[in-house]
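Purpose: get a first structural picture of the assembly so the mutagenesis plan has something to point at.
Setup: four entries, given in the order below. No constraints added.
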Amino acid sequence: MTQPQLTLVQIDNYGPWTATPEPRPECDIQALQAELFADLVQFVGRQSGYLFPVRFDNMVGLTNGLDRDDHARIQASIATRYPVTVSMGVAAARTPTGALSRATANLQAAGSAQDDTRRSVLRGETLGENDRRETDVQIAHFDAVDATARYTDELDAFEAHRRITRGYVTLADHLYEHYDALAFFVGGDNVIAISPGLGRDEYRAFVDHVEDAVSLPLQIGVGRGATARQAGMAAKRALEACREDETRVETTAATRHGP
Amino acid sequence: MTQPQLTLVQIDNYGPWTATPEPRPECDIQALQAELFADLVQFVGRQSGYLFPVRFDNMVGLTNGLDRDDHARIQASIATRYPVTVSMGVAAARTPTGALSRATANLQAAGSAQDDTRRSVLRGETLGENDRRETDVQIAHFDAVDATARYTDELDAFEAHRRITRGYVTLADHLYEHYDALAFFVGGDNVIAISPGLGRDEYRAFVDHVEDAVSLPLQIGVGRGATARQAGMAAKRALEACREDETRVETTAATRHGP
Amino acid sequence: MTQPQLTLVQIDNYGPWTATPEPRPECDIQALQAELFADLVQFVGRQSGYLFPVRFDNMVGLTNGLDRDDHARIQASIATRYPVTVSMGVAAARTPTGALSRATANLQAAGSAQDDTRRSVLRGETLGENDRRETDVQIAHFDAVDATARYTDELDAFEAHRRITRGYVTLADHLYEHYDALAFFVGGDNVIAISPGLGRDEYRAFVDHVEDAVSLPLQIGVGRGATARQAGMAAKRALEACREDETRVETTAATRHGP
Amino acid sequence: MTQPQLTLVQIDNYGPWTATPEPRPECDIQALQAELFADLVQFVGRQSGYLFPVRFDNMVGLTNGLDRDDHARIQASIATRYPVTVSMGVAAARTPTGALSRATANLQAAGSAQDDTRRSVLRGETLGENDRRETDVQIAHFDAVDATARYTDELDAFEAHRRITRGYVTLADHLYEHYDALAFFVGGDNVIAISPGLGRDEYRAFVDHVEDAVSLPLQIGVGRGATARQAGMAAKRALEACREDETRVETTAATRHGP
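Result (structure tokens, whole complex):
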């Protein structure tokens, strides 16, 4: 059984800000979003968490190992160094969908994303140290078999982008609707999913489904650990094993002494 | 008639790099990608261009106003400050799809994205100063009507993300297949499209199509200018007019003395 | 008695790198140095440490609370995201000068700063958890009385810079030679010193000395704590008390539950 | 005859901001300053200018080639992406000291650095295109002979820092008082001076003076050009010639087609 702790990070009152007092140049908005994400992903990563960009103004973190003080310190640093603030909702549950649903509800209860009085709010509960276990997190790391040869070197850049996006949507919908898992596009042809402890057979069935639906052959590395980093590094090593052995699904536990 | 100049930016040999000598921590990869994009978007933006993150290792720039030296200087700065290099293909054409298709072909001709000897390559031709015109670029800036109230404040964060993504895919596919336009998701519920000079009626038909297909009510601001920045700022102002007047499509030319 | 733990951070083989294969543009070098420092200061800061820019290619950290793994993780992240690596020497001692001297010796023993085979080396010992105490760190935070009115708004910018630099040099030399303390310029008219547990009278005598020598009236806040952050925040609050009460030296202990 | 254009960049009302509503953590302040400088140096560098960190809240740019619109666009981008704004004073003159003195006066006339209503002010005049010449800028790039062997690998890190700082102060004072030149420390053992067209003999006399005064043997590359980048790259190449030929002063003109 897994116990992922998820954090929804939302830029406060961001839509109005981008157009006040008049629309801001797009390059500055894009740069701000990317810099803010780069900062947040490192804050979270330093304590072994993952963060996904999602909609850029709404990001999702897998934060097992970060307590409330850790969250609050991140918020304070952002408030000092950026013209915007971020609010956060956090929750843990047995499934990723359950955790994110509660984390969202916690944040929504504190006010609208466009409420101009909601600033740097932090709502919800993190896991106590005594409630954490070595197997709380499962990560599945996907990529497309031979994506460079099939897409990047072969199709025009937008067509390649469309194929990858279509594959991601199919994959993410299926994982969400049938397995309570949350899948995020992380660049190139890579997708990382927070999973509720699925087994090798389920991933095999899943690979077959996506290949049938959108002709996208996937390979998957699956890892388990106490934190996103432990589970994620195990998943990456498993994915390397897929590439070397030309298999489609590999699973490993976290190395005991991994970082 | 438009004449967009598009630049495909590709991180050289990036896939292998992320796993050499062993898989690198995801937080560092995410941070690197975001920092690189933030840097590039500002380089391009400084000279009135736009850049879209697309697949993060493949980015697309709308670069009317940047010549070959500008591109080369950006590459040199990245090569100095990052552990990776970027190669670029560039081309101008009457339609966005035509330009990107040629830009891609130019880059592919220089070697595979995973060719470890292809580094900081620049291929293709930029527009000469004498060939440029005040109306070379058309930008359409979309967002969803009442997205915060309908999605962000109402649904759980992943469900909201799925709706926005589904809307984006429908919109981008339709623009690509029927209008030779390229649409990019830029955060929140915002999509920016490089268009080949479509008229108000075409955008109205388009809005109806998307609303019928995925129940996503859109509003669109359309702008025209000599550069991405000029056209894009005009589009943003037009979109503000939609919000104020509760209309669905507004178009404006660039202000003559805009930045 | 204090027990500061100091880390000397050195960019590996940096001089040759800046001129290979030919001299790199100064703006890229400056940007790289500043981005690397911004990154490192946040890594160290996240775990309650301080970092000083010093010579930019040689930085000094006050790192009580960071163990070897923390140092190693920082090095790995830098190695992934930058074209350069950093080596580190670390040591704790009763005095700041003693600690930095050993930290330097530890690093020098691993090879020259221009040895092109020395990469991401980490040498020396961090404090064990059982050896740490609530009073290990003393920070003194200095600024010049009325610096904005006297210098910034009154003199030309270079003359103001000269006065501040001359004041810093006098102050740093005196602290180093007579008190085994290390003082670093941190911007504006601010200097932060790592001190070996000096008392109020010693700081008073010190203020008089600097004012006599270079006509620079100082005010000083002094704080104590288990980490740079605790001691530094206490020092900042003490300095605020100086400004409000128009006193020249104030000292406070760390608040017990401070961040 | 030279004609340097200098820009004084000042963070608006920065001192109060760092302590409002209460003192901000030093790591966040240091990170903000470094990120802001990294950003500004690239903005300025993109258009062939140089920027020096100086006091971090007061920076000095050598901005031949940037007009008022360029300055204003930089200010607008900073105002969008940071919690602080920057004001600027700009002026050109025959000597560096003359230009900075006027640039400072221009900015001071707009209000105090701690005036909380002065935000993103831009004062002064940039050079018209017709007034610019190929030889407007002279740069001298200094470093210490064998600094790594003599200081970095030999002394403890603070002692090395003290020697370098003392050398810098001596050098900068002498250049300022006798030659109307402005010298800035740029990292390691490197100093860059904006000079008013000094000749080889003057630099030789200068090198002798510094070596006599503080036993610091210098080597100097001198370059000339229309912009900081042109003059600075020529100076760097001249300095490389010093290193190869073991000479102490080398001068070159800008390469005609340099970047």
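The interface with chain D takes residues 24-25, 27-29, 31-32, 35, 76-77, 80-83 of chain A (CB under 8 Å).
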